[in-house]
Design goal:
Radius of gyration: 17 Å
Strand content: 25-35%
Shape: globular
Order of helices and strands: EEEEHEHEEEEEEEH
Mean pLDDT: 95
Largest sheet: 6 strands, antiparallel
Number of domains: 1
Number of helices: 3
Helix content: 10-25%
Structural class: mainly beta
Distance between the termini: 48 Å
C-alpha cells in the first residue's frame, strides 16, 4: 500500500450522507501548535454527483478553521483527496484560542468556564489574555482535533467533545 501524503493546497471531500458532500483544504502548518496541519472547511453543501472546479470550492464561504492530521484522516478513509491548488487564502489572519484549564478537573467535574485563555495567529507566539473578551471570542478552538471530530463538525456544525467555555 502506498503512503498517503498531503501537502499545503490539497482539497478534500467529506461525504455528509448518501446524497451530499462538503470540502475542506489544508492551508498551512502551524509551528505554534505542534507543526500541525491547519484546514479551512467550506460551508457549501454539494450534491454527491456534482463535480465543482477546485477554484469554485476554495472561493466559497469558510465555515471554520481547525488543526488536524490530514494524513490520518486519509488513512482512516474519512475523507478523499480531490486535488491541489495554490489558492489557499490569507493564512496570516487565522486565529486560535486555548486555555490552560483544558482537561483540568475540580473534584469530579471538569472546569466548564475558563478565565485562563491564550490566543495566537498561525505561526506566532501565544498571547495570554485571561478572560476571553471582544474579538478574542471569535478565535477557533486551537487544539489538534481528531479526524473523527473534524468530520463531525463538518457534518453537524459542532464538536461533541468537551472544551471549556468563556461565558
Amino acid at each position: 500500500m502506498a503512503r498517503k501524503n498531503t501537502k499545503i493546497g490539497d482539497v478534500f471531500l467529506v461525504k455528509i450522507d448518501d446524497n451530499h458532500k462538503k470540502y475542506f483544504q489544508y492551508v498551512v502548518s502551524d509551528l505554534t501548535q505542534l507543526n500541525s496541519d491547519v484546514i479551512r472547511a467550506f460551508k457549501k453543501v454539494y450534491q454527491i454527483n456534482s463535480n465543482p472546479d477546485l477554484s469554485e470550492i476554495v472561493n466559497e464561504e469558510i465555515e471554520f478553521y481547525t488543526h488536524c492530521v490530514t494524513k490520518l484522516g486519509l488513512k482512516m478513509n474519512l475523507w478523499e483527496k480531490v486535488g491541489n491548488t495554490t489558492e489557499i487564502g490569507n493564512t496570516t489572519q487565522i486565529f486560535f484560542r486555548g486555555t490552560s484549564d483544558y482537561g483540568v478537573w475540580i473534584g469530579e467535574e471538569p472546569i466548564r468556564i475558563s478565565e485562563k485563555w491564550y490566543v495566537w495567529r498561525v505561526n506566532h507566539s501565544f498571547k495570554d489574555v485571561g478572560k476571553l473578551e471582544g474579538e478574542n471570542r471569535k478565535a477557533e478552538i486551537g487544539i489538534v482535533v481528531n479526524p473523527l471530530d473534524v468530520v463531525e463538525r463538518i457534518k453537524t456544525g459542532s464538536y461533541s467533545f468537551f472544551h471549556p467555555s468563556y461565558k
